[in-house]
Design brief:
Immunoglobulin-like; 45% strand; five-stranded mixed β-sheet; alpha+beta
Length: 419
Amino acid sequence: MSASKLAIFVVMSIFLMQNLFVAFSVSESSVSESGRIPQPDLQISTEDITFSKSQFSVGEYVNISVRIHNKGNQAAGTFQVRYTDNSSGTFFPPLDTLQGCPEYSEITSETAYLPLIQGVHIITIIADATNLVVESDETNNRASIEIYVGSSQNTITIEHEITPNPCKMNENVWVNGSARLITGQPASNASVKITIDAIGKEYETKTNENGEFFYQFTSPSKVGKYLLNISVNSGEFHGFASDYLEVKRQEYPNLVVREISVSPSTPYTSEKVQISVVIQNKGKENATNVLVEMLIDDSVVGSDEKEKIDSDAKAVSNCTWKAKKGTHNVTVRINGILSQASKSFKVIERTTQSLIPQDMGVYVVVFVILCAVIFVYISSKEKSMKFNHIRKIIKKRDKRKLSSSVSVTDEKETKRGNG
């Protein structure tokens, strides 16, 4: 191979290696730690859409806001939000431009809406409507919501309340309201229509002499947010109002046994034993009329009824039992359902070595120590008294010796004087 060919081969090899290294680096850096390629994911739902007022009329502006969530693992660049109306309505602006949204965060878009005709309108909002952002999921960035637009010449004012709202599936719901003419007088004996277009339901009633109306119906059997329209018509006068009925999934209590305790832990035969059980409601719904049964060896030894246990709250049930020799097992039944929790303990026969109750052990030790201290004190007191007695005897003896010595000396001095 000539030198020129060898040089060309070396240059091409280096070029290919550099390109491979760059490609590998790019592909490596573009994959997140979780193994997914970093991409934004813009999402919106019906719950993210809000209006500046709850009643809509032809020719009256209303502000619309929508929260847009980026649940992807990469920031979204500039994108546009489009607002549309399946009926006749105008948006200002119809296309809102947002300057990006960081990963795992949210941003709000707003527009003004002017409905032009009376009736049901379906407002649809699309995030990244012009596909400026490449997303991991392109199907979850739109949401639609129904509104009812009333006449621009409403001559009846409607006030209403929906209870409960939110409600559960297939639950009884009340619509209570009142209707008044623009003069302030009650719209008495007027026809009232309550409609839920999404499920094709229409209910009719009438106002009483005070302009009040009441109606009960069963909520839809599916979870969702439903537009509820109310119209009042007295012939010459009419009025419209709308609201949302939110149907939520049914929640239930979830009662679990958190703790079982036996006191004393190792009882003696015929001793009174206390069984304590701690129950917790881990569900999202409060529990009422809870029956707690405590069983030892599958036999009920005590029961307790709790009127109410709130969500995430705890309750304690107790009972006493006369101990019988052997190994026993405590279980708990809640509203007739046996819990998996259990507690084993042993009852022993009382012996001569165990005449002192277990709880008295500490007192016995203290008593023994106290007796020892008293004994030492008395012993030292007796020794001190004996020592003092001996000292007194010695002092008396010394005093007598000194006295006799003085007497002898005086006698000698007297004889010496007489001589």
